[in-house]
């Protein structure tokens, strides 16, 4: 463990991210909303006014849990329960704003270590109490809303006390981290040893190591540092049947790679209590810059050429025309974007290596019609990159609706997929008389394909949840019809469960269920997430 | 399908590889054997003289199978059964030379397509006949020797007719290949389209696409092209319960990566009937060269630096002192190697890129004490790289014993692992009064670790199998004790089954069994391979 002692952020139950970073609505966006006649709806229910059911976990079970973790680490305080209710998706936030506390856990239990986790699972399995492993709490796909039918209550298993850097192997460049370590703390601990994880998802401030692994997170520097699942070399999983330790080598031919079952398991198979990851030395140089492309197609070709023939920048993104114009990613200048399609490239590493890579990549970008915009737009993106989502709260307050969704496919299928999803979402919202803006970017590239990340904006309405539900269903269907994957990095949760089942087919679902039943025979772990019960 | 029609090689049941490439024993090696007093044992049983049990599959089942695939594609000919008996390990070859046909399949069945595979599995599951999926037949870990207890016979399901290139997506750079396509044919078909797989395992001439995937093959150019499991983006698996299609995108967060269950499943979960892989454009330039290092430690440091900080050559290998001296890899000059530790670097790609990468890698190699030996040793390695194993047959004829084994671990553990395995094998053989030579190389590197590949040579004895069995058990135990993986690219088969069970633990074994039972409830697929029944 480290001696660093970072302040713990108390995230609000009804807002995105760190309250200290909350932002107002820029005038430019307010003007747009005014033009469109979008006005605030009634005021939201404040968390203090939200009404919770009495905790359902039977008293003897609660006492057993208190014996395991100490009574100070079992809580049924309202604010604690609310903070562990659902995640950070727009529907999650809207439900909380509507005072809907139906998914609240009955208890929040905070084990101190692996042994206590195993013991909590034993107690809950015996008592038929459902357990939701909770580390960052940033799911945007309903991954924290279990199906409680048939259970004697729901425990949020908060892993915040399993926090820290266990060890670093500087020769092998691996580090073992505890699951409750949030992104900034993991970086701080690693950087004190001269290393970086290089993992910066948009939920960075809240998300944690265990969640990165459980949900196959991808960060904004994935071109350079890879996805989180590609960084993982070892895992420890506490299950109701005991502990599973996986990962004896970087790669192996010793049977199926069981690590790949735990990655993406979203708390349904066990509780990840330790993650060993590949780390990299801290870069000495960082350069970010902007490029303008005449069209999304030209920009996508440039990204594909870099992904296939190299060299790869550390960060590589491309916004389409709508996203470039609106520039929602930067609260400071939202609504006042530029023309064409904006690409961001970032390079991190040692000085000479960065220079060479940047020169070679720039030649490819220019060859594809890119015009260099210099470092200003790059730095603006870098410094503002975690701020974009904070715009959602003032937008919701102002009567707008904003949500995102994402997918991934092979390069040749990318244009068709982009068009199909955009059309499906817009048509579904228009059927409710809601004109919408759908903007899109590529932010993760592979040799054979890339992700597409969509942001959808329209007027909020009293039944926003239902209307968005139909748009989301249309998007899911379009993604499936195009043969793409239902998620590149958000995961399955409950929101993507049905499309996921179609994606892997009935035999695939049987496999996931068989694996779950093997490790969690009582089915207490995050029931209803990933696959139906 | 392609119109190319490559000649089909008839591999011998008791020899390595293509009979046309058979080699004699170089004088230098014969002299060494003479010095050591190693003399030929009695002559081996010729395949024509081997005695087979009558085929056990009941006549009605055989008739059903003939109805599925056509009677011309069901064979119980002796030579056919012998060619499908076991694989290419030294124990496998010695058993065949001893006339031990106990693992021979009863029938060889050759389906034409996916539908016929599914139907054969249905017939065999109903009749309790075991099925061994057979494509290249090059297993060196007992992957083709099922446990037939309780079954009404064993069918070798030869996938030779599922051969060819189904499609290429030049934009996404993916290709779909059929499982029976052997290495050289896959390359020929892809190269006709301007692409290469870049996968060259030592068994290249015999191994096939389905086997590459089923056993997580790694090729000699893994530094540049990656392991085979890293190339796979899609798979179709025919199982007794129907077909499982996996792979909607390069990477996804849609749950556990089920492709990673099929990869490494070694024919125990189903029959891989189609593999979609990432391909690369054919390189225009190829340069191979040799480097001399004063010690294995210095050379390993150089390899680690290239793997961690780049740039990576396409081929990167390092032999230890013993292997460098003996130079068994090249029959033309075997026994007459050089001093120090020989490293081979190879670069493939476009001309300017290769030049830049070679210059930067050479600087690292020099900085670690490497002395450039020029292109001659590199070209010698490249042209002779598939010939080394052909030395085994004349060595066995001359009374010597040679076998290989391999493992993988993290960099910081590499020296300890190399020492532990070497000592364990030598001590075990010495307990049988067999002094041995143990040589080692690194041939696959990762950021966090590398593989170790050992070649063991000693005198053959009448009970060579038992003696090697105890040495192999000692090696397995040493690998496990060192916390390394029991296989980097050979797989588990039956030979590594017990150590694999220790590596993944009882819960891990339960998981593998649960997955198998889900797809293959009757347990007919390669029974006894990977995990005990």
TrEMBL record, chains A, B:
Cofactor(s), names only, from the UniProt record: FAD
Residues at which FAD binds: 133-139, 266-272
Binding site for substrate: 392
Segments forming domain FAD-binding PCMH-type: 101-282
Pfam families: FAD-oxidase_C, FAD_binding_4
Keywords: FAD, Flavoprotein
Catalytic residues identified in the record: 453 (proton donor/acceptor)
Family: Belongs to the FAD-binding oxidoreductase/transferase type 4 family.
PANTHER family linked to this entry: ALKYLDIHYDROXYACETONEPHOSPHATE SYNTHASE, PEROXISOMAL (PTHR46568:SF1)
Protein name per the record: FAD-binding oxidoreductase
């Amino acid at each position: 463990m480290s001696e660093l002692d970072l302040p713990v952020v108390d995230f609000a139950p009804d807002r995105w991210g760190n309250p200290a970073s909350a932002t107002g609505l820029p005038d430019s966006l307010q003007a747009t909303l005014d033009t469109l006649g979008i006005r605030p709806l009634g005021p939201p229910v404040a968390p203090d006014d939200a009404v919770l059911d009495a905790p359902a976990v039977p008293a003897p079970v609660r006492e057993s849990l208190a014996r395991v973790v100490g009574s100070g680490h079992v809580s049924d305080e309202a604010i604690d329960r609310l903070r562990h209710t659902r995640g950070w998706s727009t529907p999650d936030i809207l439900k909380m704003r509507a005072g809907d506390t139906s998914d609240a856990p009955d208890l929040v239990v905070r084990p101190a270590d692996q042994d206590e986790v195993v013991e909590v699972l034993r107690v809950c399995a015996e008592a038929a109490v459902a357990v939701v492993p909770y580390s960052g709490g940033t799911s945007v796909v309903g991954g924290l809303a279990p199906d409680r039918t048939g259970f004697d209550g729901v425990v949020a298993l908060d892993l915040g006390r399993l926090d820290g850097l266990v060890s670093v192997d500087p020769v092998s460049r691996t580090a073992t981290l505890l699951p409750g370590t949030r992104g900034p703390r993991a970086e701080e601990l690693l950087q004190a040893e001269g290393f970086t994880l290089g993992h910066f998802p948009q939920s960075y401030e809240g998300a944690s190591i265990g969640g990165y692994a459980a949900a196959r997170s991808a960060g904004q520097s994935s071109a350079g540092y890879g996805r989180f699942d590609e960084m993982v070399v070892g895992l420890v999983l506490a299950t109701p049947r005991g502990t599973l330790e996986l990962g004896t080598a970087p790669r192996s031919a010793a049977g199926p790679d069981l690590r790949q079952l735990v990655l993406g398991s979203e708390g349904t198979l066990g509780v990840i209590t330790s993650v060993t990851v590949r780390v990299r030395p801290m870069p000495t140089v960082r350069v970010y810059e902007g490029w303008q492309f005449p069209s999304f197609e030209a920009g996508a070709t440039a990204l594909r050429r870099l992904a296939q023939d190299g060299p790869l920048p550390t960060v590589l993104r491309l916004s389409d025309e709508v996203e470039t114009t609106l520039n929602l990613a930067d609260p400071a200048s939202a609504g006042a974007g530029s023309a064409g399609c904006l690409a961001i490239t970032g390079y991190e590493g040692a000085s000479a290596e960065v220079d060479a890579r940047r020169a070679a990549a720039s030649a490819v970008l220019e060859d594809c019609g890119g015009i260099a915009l210099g470092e200003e737009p790059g730095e603006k993106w870098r410094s503002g990159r975690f701020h974009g989502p904070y715009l959602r709260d003032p937008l919701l307050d102002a009567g707008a609706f904003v949500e995102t969704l994402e997918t991934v496919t092979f390069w040749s299928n990318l244009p068709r997929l982009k068009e199909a999803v955009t059309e499906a979402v817009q048509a579904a919202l228009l059927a409710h008389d809601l004109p919408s803006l759908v903007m899109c970017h590529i932010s993760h590239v592979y040799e054979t394909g890339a992700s597409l990340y969509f942001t959808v904006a329209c007027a909020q309405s009293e039944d926003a949840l239902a209307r968005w539900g139909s748009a989301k269903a249309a998007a899911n269907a379009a993604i499936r019809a195009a043969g793409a994957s239902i998620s590149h990095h958000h995961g399955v949760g409950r929101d993507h469960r049905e499309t996921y089942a179609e994606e892997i087919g009935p035999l695939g679902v049987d496999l996931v269920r068989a694996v779950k039943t093997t490790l969690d025979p009582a089915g207490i772990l995050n029931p209803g997430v990933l696959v139906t019960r």
